Amino acid sequence: MNIIVVEHNPHWREMYLEEEREIQEILSDVLVNSYHMGSTAVPGLKAKPIIDILLVVTDINALDNYTLPFEKLGYEVMGEFGIRGRRYFRKGGDNRTHQIHAFQFDHIQEIERHLIFRDYLCHQPEVVKDYGELKSMLAQKYPNDIEAYGDGKDDFVKKVEKQALLWHWTIR
After folding, report:
1. What's the CA gap between 76 and 98, in Å, rounded?
2. For 93-105, how does the pLDDT look when each residue is reduced to its tens digit (9 = 90+)?
3. What percent of the chain has pLDDT above 70?
4. CA quadruple 102, 42, 134, 166: dihedral positive or negative?
5. Rounded distance, CA 79 to CA 63, Å?
6. Is 101 left (phi over 0), alpha (psi -120 to 50) or beta?
7. Distance from CA of residue 31 to its chain's centroid?
8. How much is the pTM?
9. The pLDDT value given to residue 80
10. Staple 104 to which of 50, 60, 63, 82, CB 3.0 to 4.6 Å?
């Protein structure tokens, strides 16, 4: 997979909404809510042009019954894919366009971690700038090594996640 980080595209929101409609039709019986998350959900943030979708469902195991409809939408069904209690789907192969992270409604820690991080970035333009520059630098340094790219972001993301949690609990 070639790692490319681009300037924020305002059409990413529309791309998310189009995909959300398709997913809602498939999962009407088990879907609690869906969210646009990740870098493409943060205005002004440079990102890999992959739409991240967070699904909250009533029963995570029930998603295993939806393999065929997801495959018809072009998704590769990946199971937990390294995170216990998650279901992961990706679309587009080596030119990935979308990825879905699904959790059962009571898997609060993972759900909130993603949403709080997104919301914090939406309110912190300096952090967005720094994060975007880091991602651009890492994409240039490791254009074909997704693990090195991810490892390079890890310390920054963990630091910002802590700041985001503190921010989240102090704004209430």
Report:
1. 10
2. 888 999 999 999 9
3. 99
4. negative
5. 9
6. beta
7. 17
8. 0.94
9. 95
10. 60
